[in-house]
TrEMBL record:
Spans traversing the lipid bilayer: none
Main location per the UniProt record: mitochondrion
Keyword Cell membrane annotated: no
EC identifiers of the protein: 6.1.1.20
Catalytic activity, as annotated: tRNA(Phe) + L-phenylalanine + ATP = L-phenylalanyl-tRNA(Phe) + AMP + diphosphate + H(+)
Annotated localization: Mitochondrion matrix
Record key words, sorted: Aminoacyl-tRNA synthetase, ATP-binding, Ligase, Mitochondrion, Nucleotide-binding, Protein biosynthesis, Transit peptide
This protein's record includes keyword Aminoacyl-tRNA synthetase: yes
Cited CDD domains: PheRS_alpha_core
Domain FDX-ACB: 384-487
Stated name of the protein: phenylalanine--tRNA ligase
UniProt family annotation: Belongs to the class-II aminoacyl-tRNA synthetase family.
Length: 487
């Protein structure tokens, strides 16, 4: 997570038709974490003393902010459900990284410490990703991991091979639309070499030799930036230039091969399904400089897909401090993280992220047998398109001054608060929520917001009565939890 959101938002289609206002809402200021009392108030009536997740019991405290709808998804493990598109995508990625070098870890528990998720990776104390508006906390020191990087420090210490792949469910409080869901899956990989074990201690030479053994590909790669850059993408003091350059080159080829595998399969599937002529234009990708607290230099990889540049992963040369803290000061290498749903959405042409959680046979049956026969991969065929139903909710926030009580105050408000109320009230029956108007009263300074909620089930046509009921629950939830005044 470079900014408040990295790969999750990075994987979003650029300019995917969002309104300017919706985009505005995504730009969160650092340090916007609200006081714990806000959660105390919001959950005072219903906070359980303990929660059980995958058979273990955890005490909650006023930091607790995990709705039961999200808790109930912690046992689903879509990445391990045979023939589920998330699991198929995992398998395709695994096929590019041989298990002899990259040990696979697919069963790590989603509950991790705040330390593992943030501190161990060098996230500063005021990093916006730590805010309770963005992250699901069980208590102050325990949370639902927001990324698979949470396991990096531990694996740098304990993994017996020179690399690994992790796949796992990750959790983020986020907006509601067709490409965001509070639970999704990531895959993380790393590869490292040990200066004390390579011939003549020449790490760069050993890495380049390994690079020479990797296959080549026919993609067009744009890579305009230098291997490192003093201000924008610095070399670490622990690394020689030749080392960093070699590690960066091995990283880039490895990840290009992964992307090549995914997109070649996506293209083949589309051709088979549509009988279209195979595309003879080579795939095009580009490397873009990036920032992550736990790598330097860092990059994102973008793929040219249907006329757009899509960011699909984050990566870089691992911060040496992580290896040093792991008791392995001689290890040097790279790491990456990729979101599986976004890749699966492209691979299978799945139009809405909620579908991954569907237990409907019309969805699941379309992928049966594919995991063992990847050549049978075909695009998903939508089984229905039910009508949307838009409803607006407009409300005044409370006063932003401390005397105003804080709850529902403009300074405290975060659009993820509304998202959670909507999910609680309507579950997966909401396709997206957009801020359509905001207004500050010129005299009183009070702030008013209007959100448009699109009620649409993937599985059936909603009746008017049930849509009205759900919307009423949203309105009541807003008033009860955040003390807003409905307009
Ligand atoms: N954890 C990052 C995220 O979720 C992705 C990532 C970036 C993982 C760089 C890495 C890495 O291992 O080296 O946004």
């Amino acid at each position: 997570m470079a900014g408040p959101r990295c790969v999750a938002s990075a994987l979003r289609l650029r300019a995917a038709g969002r309104s300017g206002l919706a985009l505005l809402l995504q730009q969160r200021s650092p340090g916007s974490a609200s006081p714990a009392r806000r959660w105390q108030a919001a959950y005072s009536s219903g906070r359980p003393k303990t929660v059980e997740i995958n058979g273990k019991t955890y005490p909650t405290d006023p930091w607790f902010n995990v709705p039961s709808s999200v808790l109930s998804l912690t046992s689903r493990k879509l990445h391990l459900q045979k023939d589920h598109p998330v699991s198929i995508t995992r398998k395709i990625i695994e096929s590019v990284f041989p298990a002899s070098t990259y040990r696979y870890y697919n069963t790590f528990d989603p509950v991790v410490s705040t330390y593992e998720n943030f501190d161990s990776l060098g996230f500063p104390p005021d990093h916006p990703g730590r805010a309770r508006t963005d992250t699901y906390y069980i208590n102050e020191s325990t949370l639902l991991r927001t990324h698979t990087s949470a396991h990096e420090a531990e694996l740098f210490r304990s993994n017996p091979t020179g690399g690994y792949l992790i796949s796992a469910d990750v959790y983020r409080r986020d907006e509601i639309d067709r490409s965001h869901y509070p639970v999704f899956h990531q895959m993380e990989g790393a590869r490292y070499w040990d200066r004390s074990k390579v011939p003549h201690g020449d790490l760069a030479a050993a890495v380049l030799e390994d690079l020479g053994r990797l296959p080549r590909h026919d993609m067009t790669v744009q890579d305009p930036s230098p291997p490192f850059h003093a201000e924008r993408n610095p070399l670490q003091p622990h690394h020689g230039p030749a080392e960093a350059e070699a590690v960066g080159a091995h990283l880039k080829r490895s990840l290009e091969l992964m992307v090549h595998e995914i997109f070649t399969r996506a293209r083949k599937a589309a051709v088979l399904a549509e009988g279209a002529a195979p595309q003879d234009k080579p795939l095009e990708v580009r490397w873009v400089e990036a920032y992550f607290p736990f790598t330097s230099p860092s990059w994102e990889l973008e793929v040219h897909y249907q006329g757009d540049w899509l960011e699909i992963l984050g990566c870089g040369v691992s911060q040496q401090s992580l290896h040093i803290h792991a008791g392995k000061p001689d290890q040097v290498g790279w790491a990456f993280g990729i979101g599986l749903e976004r890749v699966a959405m492209l691979l299978f042409q799945i139009p809405d992220i909620r579908l991954f959680w569907s237990q409907d046979e019309r969805f699941l049956s379309q992928f049966r047998g594919v995991e063992d026969h990847l050549d049978r991969l075909r695009p998903f065929e939508p089984f229905s398109k039910h009508p949307p139903c838009y409803k607006d909710v407009s409300f005044w926030l409370g006063s932003s001054s401390a005397a105003g009580g804080g709850l529902g105050g403009a300074a405290d408000w975060h659009d993820n608060d509304l998202m959670e109320v909507v999910r609680d009230a309507a579950g997966d029956c909401v396709e997206d929520v957009q801020l359509v108007d905001r207004f500050t009263h010129p005299k009183t300074g009070r702030k008013s917001l209007c959100y448009r909620i699109n009620y649409r089930s993937l599985e059936r046509t909603l009746t008017n009565a049930e849509t009205n009921e759900m919307h009423q629950r949203v309105v009541d939830g807003l008033v009860k939890r955040f003390g807003v005044e409905i307009r």
